[in-house]
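Progress note, project year one: complex with coenzyme A.
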Amino acid sequence: MASAYESAYRRSLEDPNGFWAEAAEGINWDQRWERVLDDGNPPMYRWFVGGRLNTCYNALDRHVEQGRADQPALIYDSPVTGTVRTYTYRELRDAVAHFAGALRSQGVQKGDRVIIYMPMIPEAVIAMLACARLGAIHSVVFGGFAPKELATRINDAQPRLIVSASCGIEGKRVIEYKPLLDQAIELAESKPQKCIVFQRPQAQAAMSPGRDIDWNDALASADPVDCVMVEATDPLYILYTSGTTGIPKGVVRDNGGHAVALHWSMKNIYNVEAGDVYWAASDIGWVVGHSYIVYGPLLAGCTTIMFEGKPVGTPDPGAFWRVISQHKVKVLFTAPTAFRAIKREDPEGKLIGNYDLGGFETLFLAGERCDPDTLNWAQTQLGVPVIDHWWQTETGWAIAANCVGLGALPVKPGSPTKPAPGYEVQVLDEAGQPVAPGKIGSIVVKLPLPPGCLPTLWQNEAGFRDSYLNTFSGYYLTADAGFQDEDGYLFIMARTDDIINVAGHRLSTGGMEEVLASHPNVAECAVVGARDTLKGEVPLGFVVLKAGVDRPHGEITKELIQMVRDKIGPVAAFKTVTVVQRLPKTRSGKVLRGTMKKIADGSEYSMPATIDDPAILSEIQESLQTVGYPKTGT
Ligand code: COA
Ligand code: AMP
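Model obtained:
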């Protein structure tokens, strides 16, 4: 007999209209859709066309109306400030309705963009949901990005208003956000009319009169407002993610398909229901934060946890176990790197014994390849199933997962299991032909993508088609390479573009190369992702200096490291760059980054047949040794 997963998967592909219409019953609609899937304009597809709803209503108001008013909706747990604060569904709804009133008083209307540049504080969630309430489109920018990155996003989204805070807290350090915001606005061509700034006690932001408004002052003159109904196909948010150049891609998420898919995923993938406590230990600046700190758990009536801390050092590697036991977390979702950090400091998991993890059922990991060592360690220490699942900012929810709510399948370490319902995943060769099981190829998803996935890029349909749809006609290109085994399990092995994953953070090496190339002493450069025991990968730079530059190399490399930090941000974790005489290239002039990466990782490599001058590889090796590569134990 087919398992529940197999039946759901088959039905989702054979009868997508029926499958997703049924899932859409989990959402309250102001007006039901005319068509579930609009496939009249391939390769562009839309879901729930003609439907009207409000995502904030579905995330908050309906739970208040349906008996969950006093249930905790959001628990803010901040070891860095010594705070634990709970918002019930009623309190969160009221706070959101009030802040939505403040936004409206400042002129924010349906369809306007609002950039949110905030640390992990409840006001960030309130601001996101307030935008959703008004039908405004939020664009959250991760706090670890530098002003230039923020300015690029301001220029693209052209926000009417920006919401920010005076500071973030990174471990023991207070990072002032307001000077970064001011610099970004200075750099941006498109200036927001207003900024609302939440003053935290740890730092007082200097305000620009006429432009900046204190969060509390904005509230003081505002009344709560009701939800504004929007089309299912109207955008809920834009989330910028690294592309293959320094220019980020504005991934658009619509309201209807997103609400349906995320609501469906909570029960069927994560096996949680209304009333359960669900914790995604990520940041609201990333897609995991959008989908599984904010929207997914609230749409499902769960209690969500917002954790302002790190897996280690706040105060110790027992922080995750403390939060799980204190708040009775049923499901935790984080990145493998968090577990590598914990394992490094508490290899025997001694601190786990200090806490009662009785109610904890499942650990989900995503964001980067999950190495079997980390998966096995977590499973042994915690004694619960550890589920790797694979997804992207673009899809907004898992492309492949072990759908625990549909009955868990056996885990194969190193595999995120099988495609989730709605995703017809295939592995193709360069000619677009399916490869045999076990053979590596380009992983693609047959169109249409299921609800919740990006319908386009913000004001850039050509870029959307170019990046994702044009390579293999009829398929979405994931830009991940991997294989499917005989049992249909997927293995995600590498990106096919220049994206690297640093501590679960997605970064473009091309973007870093653009920064290095702008240094006056640099003639050419390359950045590769080198293997790292903690962060999975870290960027490693190679530069060739212009003829006649005779400054000490140490001085130049220091400047280069600072430049990447200043232009992209600390999150790039760009700490190593080495000066080389030349870069290895093919005879046609293509830089052999893959070979350089293998040398840095200490992996076996074969001499590329097309290499221009094989002697360069030993020069690269020698140069890498001077900066400690290959690292032992990686
Ligand atoms: N605001 C400002 N700066 C930030 C920031 C933020 N929101 N987030 C990170 N940074 C800074 C850090 O302070 C650090 O700066 P530094 O170079 O001055 O030390 C730098 O960006 C790199 O941060 P991070 O990658 O987080 O490294 P870390 O060494 O501070 O911590 C881990 C390492 C593994 C503990 C951490 O990456 C982690 O908890 N990862 C969890 C996984 C995760 O959240 N993934 C997201 C997708 S699911
Ligand atoms: P992001 O858009 O930041 O979520 O990053 C998406 C990319 O992270 C994917 O394209 C993969 O390269 C990688 N990724 C995410 N989850 C996994 C996983 N479970 N296994 C392997 N790679 C993953």
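The mean pLDDT is 96.
The longest strand covers residues 522-532.
No further modelling is planned for this target in the current period.
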